[in-house]
Write a structure and sequence with these properties.
CATH architecture of chain B: 2-Layer Sandwich
CATH topology of chain B: GMP Synthetase, Chain A, domain 3
Number of strands of chain A: 0
Mean pLDDT of chain B: 89
Largest sheet of chain B: 4 strands, mixed
Helix content of chain A: over 70%
Radius of gyration of chain A: 21 Å
Structural class of chain B: alpha/beta
Shape of chain B: globular
Mean pLDDT of chain A: 89
Structural class of chain A: mainly alpha
CATH superfamily of chain B: Fe-S cluster assembly (FSCA)
Number of domains of chain B: 1
Order of helices and strands of chain B: EHEEHEH
Radius of gyration of chain B: 13 Å
CATH architecture of chain A: Up-down Bundle
CATH class of chain A: Mainly Alpha
Low-confidence stretches of chain A: 1-7
Helix content of chain B: 25-40%
Largest interface: A-B, 42 and 46 residues
Strand order of the largest sheet of chain B: 1-2-3-4
Oligomer: heterodimer
Chain lengths: 430, 107
């Protein structure tokens, strides 16, 4: 059984030099977004099409969530496809382009300057995503394993490119009439391509591989993952078609129901993986990630209520729409990133610092490289902030919004403390 | 599961040394995790060939774990040329975890 000769030494993983800058940038973006939320809490009592809210949303969506996902996926794609990353130079190029583009774009939104800052910001972000997509395609096509996880990640990358390109068209639409309606009309399409196509598909594709791996679970169900993949992509295409066809707009609840079904199937998948785990003690980082999976259902249920109210009463449900968007970005996306950061980053740093001591000397445990107490306080501050701020949006109460914003700023500060402690970790001198 | 070997006595010593090499994520040693497949000694040439696997072929900690195995075996058998290689046939599965390993995970 074990008579097969040796193949090779361990494959080289993606260099920490490529991955770590993404983590640092994302952490700083979270802090910047939290600071702006506190400074502009009053904006969350009005309509979501507000320059400050657009700026904060793009800092969160691109600077925080997308940057950390891009960084982590340069490390994780080789695991998913069992092949090395195609190009570290392309990865660095996407970091530099996005790193320059995101502040420009956010500045453009914040001061509603749709001239060169927003346009150049958008162009740079589109180029960054193109670099990522080429890298992803080349890595997957030369990898050893074609699997459903890799397909989730690649399709998510395609949707990200479509989202960014469409976003750039919408920026141009402010100055030139490129589309038949104004930019605000197309905002739900742009937002949902990003939320469903990029974030939801990617998080599901990666988490469905990582959660069973971290739990040492025997549960595998590729057929269920295929079904989830089909449901989300069909829902997104259906949403595009129904939204643009004014006659069939009343059927828009169908794609929303399909997404909700996909979300519940994914929750079921994670639950089965949890049940079949060999590792009985689940660490706090995986626990918060599992919590985020449960949190997934919340925005989609809110979306169904929102669609129901829109179809019945007409008009705009601004508070509900804002709460939905907030729960997407500061709810499940942030929760899973808070957990997974401390499940990936300590190992990258450990590998960088203690690799040469493996097997011969005493080395710290990767999870000891960050402060566990600060991590726990961060989780509590995050949960309280999420509840207060969401309640503030729904009740249109500035006091609740401000209290929530303070807690979220605290969360961001504690997160940054631990991330930069890891990034600047040095081997103690003995 | 015990690894295949041509010298059981020396293999015991090697396994003792390899108990000190941990998978940093799981905290379990490579022997109880079932990562060691073969230990072949060539007494004439003073060489030791260790065939092992990883939980996944592009394990981010793979380099550290194989390096740890190499260093632990070199320290245990001074004067031997140690070679560590990877095999994914069969791929690692949870069934390869030893009874002690399962107990550790159940804690």
């Amino acid at each position: 059984m074990f008579g097969v000769p040796v193949s090779s030494v361990a494959q080289k993983t993606t260099s920490h030099k490529v991955v770590l800058p993404f983590y640092g940038y994302a952490a700083a973006s979270l802090f910047a977004a939290a600071l702006l939320i506190l400074a502009n809490s009053a904006a969350f009592t009005g309509h979501y099409f507000h320059p400050r809210i657009l700026a904060i949303t793009h800092i969160l969506a691109l600077g925080w969530a997308t940057m950390i996902i891009l960084g982590a996926s340069h490390q994780l794609v080789p695991i998913l496809v069992e092949g090395s990353l195609y190009s570290e130079k392309l990865a660095m190029a996407s970091f530099i382009l996005a790193g320059l583009g995101i502040p420009l774009l956010s500045y453009g939104f914040y001061y509603f300057e749709m001239g060169w800052p927003a346009k150049w910001g958008g162009r740079l972000v589109v180029l960054a995503i193109l670099c990522y997509l080429i890298n992803l395609f080349k890595s997957i096509s030369r990898g050893k394993q074609d699997n459903v996880h890799a397909l989730f990640v690649f399709t998510a990358g395609l949707w990200l490119f479509i989202t960014a390109f469409f976003g750039l068209v919408l920026v141009y639409n402010f100055t030139y009439t490129l589309l038949s309606e104004d930019t605000l009309h197309y905002l739900p399409l742009h937002a949902h391509t990003g939320i469903l196509g990029w974030f939801l598909l990617l998080v599901m594709g990666v988490a469905s591989r990582l959660i069973p791996m971290f739990l040492i679970s025997k549960y595998r169900n590729p057929r269920l993952l295929w079904l989830i993949y089909l449901l989300i992509n069909t829902a997104l295409l259906g949403f595009f078609f129904l939204y643009l066809s004014t006659v069939l707009i009343n059927l828009i609840f169908i794609p929303a129901l399909m997404v909700l079904a996909a979300v519940f199937l994914f929750i079921y998948y994670c639950y089965r993986a949890y049940q079949a785990r060999l590792r009985k003690r689940v660490d706090p980082q995986v626990r918060i990630s599992l919590f985020s999976v449960g949190l997934l259902a919340l925005p989609w249920m809110l979306l169904l209520i929102l669609i129901g109210l829109l179809l019945r009463n007409g008009g705009e449900q601004t508070s509900l729409a804002l709460a939905y968007g907030f729960l997407v970005f500061f709810g499940w996306i942030t929760a899973i990133i808070l957990g997974m950061t401390f499940k990936t980053l300590p190992f990258i740093v450990w590998n960088k610092t203690y690799h040469h001591l493996a097997g011969i000397g005493r080395t710290p445990n990767p999870k000891d490289l960050f402060h566990d107490g600060i991590f726990r306080v961060m989780v509590l501050a995050y949960l309280a902030g999420l509840i207060f701020f969401t309640a503030g949006i729904l009740a249109v109460q500035l006091f609740l919004l401000q209290a929530g914003a303070v807690l979220l700023l605290g969360t961001a500060a504690l997160y940054n403390w631990n991330v930069f402690k890891l990034l600047f970790h040095k081997k103690p001198v003995t | 599961m015990n690894p295949v070997t041509n010298l059981p006595e020396k293999s015991k010593l090697a396994l003792e040394a390899l108990h000190q090499v941990l998978d940093p994520e799981i905290g379990l040693n490579v022997v109880d995790l079932g990562l060691i497949y073969r230990l072949d000694f060539d007494e004439e040439k003073k060489e030791l060939f260790c065939t092992m696997t990883l939980t996944t072929s592009f394990c981010p900690m793979g380099e550290s774990i194989t390096f740890g195995v190499l260093q632990a075996l070199e320290a245990c058998f001074p004067g031997y040329a140690v070679h560590v290689g990877l095999s994914f046939d069969p791929p690692w599965s949870q069934d390869l975890i030893s009874g002690e390993g399962l107990q550790f995970l159940n804690r």
